[in-house]
Amino acid sequence: MEERKGDWSEVERALSDEELKEQTSRCMNCGQPFCHAYGCPLGNLVPDQNRAVAQGNWKLAYELLSSNSDFPEFTSRICPALCEASCVHQLDEESVMIRQSEKRIIETAFENGWVVPRPPDRENGKSVAVIGAGPAGLSAAVTLRRKGWAVTVYERRANIGGLLRYGIPCFKLDKALIDRRRAILEAEGITFVTGCEVGKDVSAEWLKARHDGIVVAIGTPAARDLKIPGRELAGIHLALELLEGQNRFLTGEIDAPPINAKGKDVLVIGGGDTGSDCVGTAIRHGAKSVTQIEIMPRPPDDRSVSTPWPLWPYMLRTSSSHKEGCERRWNLNSLRFVGDDAVAGVEVETVEWELSPEGKTLKFHAVPDTKETIKADLVFLAMGFTGVPADNPIVAQLGLAQTPRTALIPDPAHGVYCVGDCASGASLVVRALASGKNIPLE
Q: Of 88, 142, 177, 274, which is most buried, counting CB atoms within 10 Å of its CB?
């Protein structure tokens, strides 16, 4: 563990062939495979893949996996494995280790040269502009290209990948894997225009004049802020300011990370995956201490009664970053940031939650006389994303309507489609990939 804290290489250990054979042999080939039909948004053929791996037939395993999944090198590293949560084994023991099997399948396929460009059999004479090169945009681009569309992907950042490249730390996803896949996509005939922000550098009208369809895949760019007294103090940052800056530095886009936690007391507000990524990043910087707080109550160690199988279980999850050295606290509401010019701490208060009979949180109230100040000279806000701002130039120029929660509503009558988080709200990479794959364009 101490060794891995000193570099940015991928943390997870690859399972051996023997371990994978043992795991995949546990698959019962259920009459109703919940892992496939209920768990996986992509509909991966999990039992069939498992059988092929157990028999040592890696090429067949890859053919089965790639029949539904276009980017298994990404999902096998960062997907929380919804399939495993709905595995029938979850009823009485540990589920089959499906994600690790998927990882070995795709890497074996690359090693053997089985992953090759798959251009369309014929061109359909139509072109489409995809706005955004994150997971949903890439998925839509691949899907439409294989239907014969001429696809151009416009991305405002310097490189493709979206949060795969700029949000998820390198110790979870090596960015060379994105470059490896990009080469294949370009060989299939997909064109990438990077460093081009639609709505500013080029207008939506310009795109409409040059393409038969437009796919909007811009994610949920607005992070949830914490507007409490003292927010203006130096040293308080949104999580992506840390994560994006660090990734840009490690991949050579900039000469130095814009934020450095070395020797500092770091506080992460928000208990989800993004907060965990901030924890691992601060630890690698050499932070003096790292604390992560959450307003919600501590989840149970095992599956909550509120999420019975085969639902995704509400339960405590401890990441590799947490294990590297982090104090975690729950039931804390942040009241104000304290300090003079720079933040020196956060005043918090303990809260208690009222729960439904099923164990779901309803509302909270403050516990009297529980205020305290947590020392911090660097604070990261990791509380999720709120959607697409109404003043986003793409929204305005395309004249798109929005739901009350700011998700974009497609306008197929004018050839405009929306996929991924911008259409459904912030969610998982695998759901964004599924959204792009299911785009209703022929």
A: 274
